[in-house]
Amino acid sequence: MVTADVKSYWNWTLDWENITIAPIWDPESGFGGNGNSSIGKAVFKGYCVTDGPFAGLQIPYFEHIYQPHCLLRGFDEHLSKYRYDLSPEALDSLLLAPDYETLNLGLENGPHIAIPRSVNGDFSLHTAPSDPVFFLHHTQLDRMWWKWQQIDPQQRFLEYLGVAETNATTKASLDDLLPMGGLAPDVSVAKIMRTDSGLLCYGY
Question: What are the tens digits of pLDDT across the range 38-88?
């Protein structure tokens, strides 16, 4: 019997009232905090992170442009615009979505963008994975999808709706291939619909 791995995630509902003081930013037990505004000029509203385990981390790219720089964060002072999207009430409401497309758009236009717009800096770019907190943010998004699936697993393990890609008209299909960029074989959506599949083998 194969034992599934258990993924770590950032449960925003514990911190939603002010994510800038969440334990995840602790310099000792977390990922370091806000950028230091006393050093240099703001870049994408962020400054160099100078505390925690990633202080001094060098990031090679801004989007597709090679431009080595320090890890940048700049916590937004106007968090009231985004914090509700991370609240228990908002997430419970998302779990009531009647279909995958409604859930997907709700996550995308709510908590998914709320964190980048609150953290700024590298997290606000397409190269957001340069900030290690990116991964805990996205495992929480994955966990929300997983929780939604558990409500009706027989139906929802097979439910995948919407368009195939941004600005496309082609409908999404379980047969769509996810390109791995040469790092691994491309895989069909059907093979990753369940976290406890032989390919993924993890849970929450």
Answer: 998 999 999 999 999 999 999 999 999 999 999 999 998 776 678 999 999
Task: Report the alpha-carbon angle 203-107-171, nearest 5.
Answer: 95
SS3 string of the chain?
A: CCCCEECCCCCHHHCCCCHHHCHHHCCCCCCCCCECCCCCCCECCEEEECCCCCCCCEEEEECCEEEEEECEECCCCCHHHCHHHHCHHHHHHHCCCCCHHHHHHHHHHHHHHHHHHHHCHHHHCCCHHHCCHHHHHHHHHHHHHHHHHHHCHHHHCCCCCCECCCCCCCECCCCCEECCCCCCCCEEHHHHCCCCCCCCCEEC
pTM of the model: 0.92
Q: How many CB atoms sit inside 10 A of residue 162's CB?
A: 14
Residue 164 CA, chain-centre distance (Å), reads 20
Find out whether 89 and 75 touch, Cβ atoms under 8 Å.
no
